[in-house]
């Protein structure tokens, strides 16, 4: 019975865990996965998600600056049309000596902004689905209890025979 409850808790956790935990079980693994595999639009989606939630940072890392984000975004996707010629959606037309930078170079230059964004995302998203995670923990605890009771009973009987005798 105990093993069945543990297996059930494990399966529930696999299906109900937050998405960020599927990408990386720890914050470091999540950040590494995103830095290696994410596209510029993936980072934009994370940024927009933070902005749509009213941007109440949950961590100190979540207080990254919009100017830094805008510069990263410009460098990551800005098409080359000549020196200092910007797209309509660019906010500031004052970028003296601006040059085209590709996404990989933009990630390298603005890694601190991306790390702040990813840490805030991991912390915010890993807090979701708490009720589901509590159900998994309770089921697992019931499974461990179901395993401990017979084991403790057997241990007590063996010690009783060893100490007292037959």
Q: What key phrases describe this protein's structure?
A:
0% strand; 2 domains; single chain; mainly alpha; 68% helix; 166 residues
Structure overview:
- It is elongated and about 85 Å long.
- The protein contains 8 helices and no strands.
- The relative contact order is 0.19.
- It folds into 2 domains: 1-17 and 129-166, no CATH class; 24-128, no CATH class.
- 68% of the residues lie in helices and 0% in strands.
Helical content (DSSP H or I, runs of 4+): 55-70%
Total count of helical runs of at least 4 residues: 8
> How much strand?
under 5%
Low-confidence stretches: 81-86, 91-98
Query: What series of H and E elements makes up the topology?
Result: HHHHHHHH
What is the terminal-to-terminal distance?
31 Å
Describe the main β-sheet briefly.
none
Please give the domain count: 2
SS-based structural class?
Answer: mainly alpha
Rough outline: elongated
If you compute it from the alpha carbons, what radius of gyration comes out, rounded to the nearest whole angstrom? 26 Å
Mean pLDDT over the full residue set: 78
User: Based on DSSP secondary structure assignment, what is the total number of beta strands?
Assistant: 0
